[in-house]
Design brief:
Protein name: Polysaccharide biosynthesis protein CapD-like domain-containing protein
Organism: marine sediment metagenome
Largest sheet: 2 strands, parallel
Helix content: 55-70%
Structural class: mainly alpha
Keywords: Membrane, Transmembrane, Transmembrane helix
Oligomer: single chain
Pfam families: CoA_binding_3
Transmembrane segments: 16-38, 50-69, 81-107, 113-134
Strand content: 5-15%
Distance between the termini: 40 Å
């Protein structure tokens, strides 16, 4: 199964794959933003637009790297990683806007907003999808456990077990009647 192959790759190779996929997403978001705004492919004939893309792409990827986007383990991705994605996309959009001015590229004012929306959708959505799929695969391999104690310690234990590789909490047992069916 190709998914198992990808999951078992060493982390540096996964980072390279993520960089490549993010490159594709940035390029697609760039051209889709123009296509959606202008409803024409005429912008493809403009050299300044290609130079703009050639400048925005590496700067965006460098921002993603500096923000730690490729250090995050997708299976445990949290809100901090989503904020890194949003910050990286904002920086990418700023690069697009500023460089379009300096490179005299014909960029309508709405294109950066459309571009940012597509980037967040593609880059963030892909990571959330991978997290969900990998989570389902690893969930099947976990052994179900019942936790005695539904208080704060039991909840902390459930969180730790759910994020670990071996066990999956399936129920709580508690002798306090107030915590039953809650």
């Amino acid at each position: 199964m190709p998914l198992k192959f990808l999951v078992n790759l060493p982390r540096p190779q996964k980072r390279i794959i993520s960089l490549f996929i993010d490159s594709v997403f940035i390029i697609v978001a760039f051209w889709l933003a123009f296509l959606l705004r202008l409803d024409s492919t005429a912008v493809l004939k403009n050299t300044h637009t290609w130079v703009l893309l050639a400048a925005v792409l590496p700067l965006s990827l460098l921002s993603f790297v500096k923000l730690g986007l490729y250090r995050a383990v997708l299976r445990y991705m949290n809100t901090q990683a989503m904020w890194a994605i949003i910050a990286g996309v904002v920086l990418s959009t700023v690069y697009l806007t500023v460089l379009s001015f300096f490179l005299s590229a014909p960029v309508p004012r709405t294109v950066p907003f459309i571009y940012a929306s597509f980037c967040i959708l593609f880059v963030g959505g892909a990571r959330l999808t991978v997290r969900a799929v990998v989570g389902q695969i690893t969930m099947r391999r976990k052994e179900g456990v019942i936790i005695y104690g539904a208080g704060s310690a039991g909840r902390q234990l459930a969180t730790a077990l759910a994020n670990g590789p071996e066990y999956s909490p399936v129920a709580f047992i508690d002798d306090d009647p107030k915590k039953h069916l809650s």
